[in-house]
Amino acid sequence: MLRYAVRRLLLLVPILLGLSILIFAWIHALPGSPAESLLGERASPESIAQIRSQLGLDKPIYVQYWR
């Protein structure tokens, strides 16, 4: 029984990793950017740039995922 539980827990790691990659890709595939979604449609380009910088959305995609 313990062996079964340990094996299932070890299988959980790649499942959670794959799920996090899929969700990350899905969020980035949505139209617009997360910064624009947070600020709304009347946001100025300066405020969008500031939020993108604060959230790290101006970094490469692999850096964003790691953070």
Q: Unreliable stretches, pLDDT < 50, 5 or more residues?
A: none
Number of strands: 0
Structural class: mainly alpha
- Beta-strand residue fraction: under 5%
**C-alpha geometry:** elongated
User: Biggest β-sheet, characterized?
Assistant: none
Helix content: over 70%
Q: What's the helix-strand series?
A: HHHH
* Span between termini: 37 Å
- Number of H/I helices: 4
Rounded mean pLDDT is 91
Radius of gyration: 18 Å
In summary, what is this structure?
The chain has 67 residues and is an all-alpha fold. It has four helices and no strands.
What tags apply to this protein structure?
67 residues, mainly alpha, 4 helices, 76% helix
